[in-house]
From TrEMBL:
One of its GO terms (molecular function) is alpha-galactosidase activity. Substrate binds at W167, D334, D335, R411, K444, W445, D446, M447, N448, C488, D510. Residues 610-698 form the Glycosyl hydrolase family 36 C-terminal domain. It is an enzyme of class 3 (hydrolase). This is Alpha-galactosidase. The keyword Hydrolase applies. It comes from Photobacterium sanctipauli. Keywords: Glycosidase, Hydrolase. Gene3D superfamilies: Aldolase class I, alpha-galactosidase from lactobacil brevis, Golgi alpha-mannosidase II.
Amino acid sequence: MTENLVHLTSKNTSLVIKTSQHIPEILYWGKKLPELDDLTPLMATLDRPIPQGRIDSDTVLSLCPELAGGLFTSPGLEGSRNGQHWAPAFHFDELVSDGESHRFVCKDPLAELQLEFILKLSKATGVLEYDIALSNVGESDYQLQRLSHTLPLPAAARELMYFHGRWTHEFQTKRMSLEQGVFTQENRRGRTSHERFPGMVVGQAGFSESQGEIYGFHLGWSGNHRLHAEVMSDGRRFLQSGELLMPGEVTLAAGESYTTPKLYACFSSDGLNGMSQRFHQHVRNNIIRFANPEKPRPVHLNTWEGIYFDHDPEYIVEMVNASAELGVERFIIDDGWFKGRNHDRAGLGDWYLDAEKYPAGLAAIVDAVKAKGMEFGIWFEPEMVNPDSDLYRAHPDWVLKTDGYHQVTVRNQYVLNLQRPEVFDYLFERMDALLSEYDIRYIKWDMNRELVQSTHNNKAAYHGHVDAFYRLIDQLKLAHPTLEIETCSGGGGRVDYQVLSRTQRFWASDCNDPLERQAIQKGASYFFPLEITGAHIGAGLCHTTGRQHSDGFRGMTALFGHMGVELDPVKATNEEKATMAKYIALHKSLRQLLHSGDHFRCDTAHQGTQAWGVVGKDKQEAVFMFTQLELAEYALAAPLQIPCLDPSKQYQITLLENSSSDIYMKKLPQWMSGEAIASGALLEQVGLMMPAIQPESAILVKLTAV
């Protein structure tokens, strides 16, 4: 550390922060700088001139841009004391560091506010964790409108990739040029959302999976959020992120504080793959907590698409036995088990086992599951209530709404106000009772609607609902420490690093169509490792798209995630059962590699193609899938360049699977006809020739170092 400069480093990254009389600013963030005893020359090389026709002094793009300094951009802090102190000017007060975390304290004595910026750059992963805390040190209330993380971007960061989607169509990516102006993405749905996933990538124009300097950002928050990328008129660029607060939602009384959700950010000089591998390792090292970290992630069978609301205990035991024969390791009863739940219009909130469907309780099913060496799991949607339920009839006031206005239903349900102690206690008691009575190791926790006009104690209650949701999970996990939870919200509507610090899996989408899943799982892979990404083999006829796909294409797509099955194994044909058993066994044979290695995506030369895979940390083995999504644009495919291998190693190339019923080739590429060996350098730089295959099909290839 040089006077006024703090140099944070990881294996590949440097972050240099300047402290002076102002709020600290980041001077440099990018490739790792040489280890220098004196970083003072950096201040000279980056000293900013002052242009004509502008403020006469230097304007600092700090960790919290200030209007008071003449920076006419999106400020980091917005709020006031009943209209006063709306443009504060902070000065740097002190730096408190424990060697890993660095806390920069800034104060404005006139506005009676204190800001603390907490930054931690992981030496192991290169991921930056960034929080801001605002404290009201005055006597009167301070109304907070927005508090945003701000990180600078280099002049070369001229292309932006963002995420969009909807139900059954999550994690879609779009690119745009970032040359002038602003791009702002806001989410007001009360959950992470299908539509506006809180992630963004900014980098050199034309960055790809394997090439380009890029910066990745993800806000760990399961509620409303705002991401903002801006190019100032002087050419400086930055990205902001933070919780989107509704009017009047956060008021800080004397002595109170507000802390932002955590921003996760990283720099990669080797494209999107480098970014993903850093984020994935950070999730593995610092965020996800499995009940038993040494145990392989168990293959699921979830009953939803197999039986929907038609629950018959004797038949479910048949499903248990059939599932075990396939190699399933965890059996989950989905929606339909509780009182009055024969369709999606009634029963939510009445978390008592349906005595008509289950007159003898769940014991026989749980015992059958355990006798087959499997774990038992069950579905809940704790935050919701149907108008047609005993709970709503007894407590209509428990709904999260604004008094005097009509609260709309979404999917025939309301949201419960978890911020009311009696509601929170009821939900905990009901879930705890079932978990205490039966050996339930797993919960699929669903949330099938957004928050609308949500009010508690006469204030907007979006932030409060998310906090209460976190507290409910925390209390449940404290009472049942071996419990694992899947976060589901009509699919991928509530997944982020904050909820994943409490859960062990996310359901990527309610759509099990493998063609859609190819895009959904690819989009999710930019931030989430495979071992927590729920990926199931669905029915041959997908109920969300009406399309049919081969068993092989469905099985291969589900390999790349936390694998499961979502259909009725009793009614499956012998051929379907054999296929499912085959892919479950194949997944198990590859599971250690898939769930611990480095995920990569390939840059493909032709439209309508896609390829991704995993290479082991020691580079001894890799597996990848090449997919033809649509009819090939040319009669011949192109060589596939495979990144992330060891260039000095020789790899044996083996075709593991082919889901195409016909390969349109008179002659196959030579490597497909027998054993072939090539170096990692050759496979990456020249590539491996692919065959022309049918649309909506794939091949699976194994690479083994020899």
